[in-house]
Amino acid sequence: MRFSTLAIVSTIFIPALSVAAKTVDVVMADLPVGFPGVGVPKFLPRFEPPTVDINVGDTVRWTNKGTVPHTVDEGADCTAVANGQLFSSGPVPRGGTFEYTFNTAGEFPYFCLPHCAVGSMKGTVSVKANPTSANDA
Ligand SMILES: [Cu+2]
């Protein structure tokens, strides 16, 4: 009697390939920075967490839990992507949210327009190719 490895592997892994899209939260607020216990605690506007890892098809939801408006602008070094900027929220007020669904794999640096110069309000979304996308080609 032959043992069908392929059948067993398929049975185990096919459900795992159906990865449901998810939403990941990032907070925008004045949060403590620096080294705990050293000097006076310092609060600066920033994104928390500053880096998120997601899969293609997932959504990032930024929520402003601070007191002043923030933006979510694709770009590095406080400079917006010149052409084809994927996302630019405009001012997100206190309590407001901005969402973007990433449909392409890659690294997407972003920043807050009014607070990038402070040096603290930058982030990166790292998007991995979804395992199922290999079957979509
Ligand atoms: Cu800001």
Automatic annotation (TrEMBL):
Signal peptide bounds: 1-21
Record key words, sorted: Copper, Metal-binding, Signal
Gene Ontology MF annotations: copper ion binding; electron transfer activity
InterPro entries in the record: BlueCu_1, Cupredoxin, ET_Amicyanin
Ranges for domain Blue (type 1) copper: 46-128
Keyword Magnesium on entry: no
Highest taxon listed in the record's lineage: Eukaryota
Pfam families: Copper-bind
Family matches, as PANTHER family: BLL1555 PROTEIN (PTHR36507:SF1)
Protein name: Cupredoxin
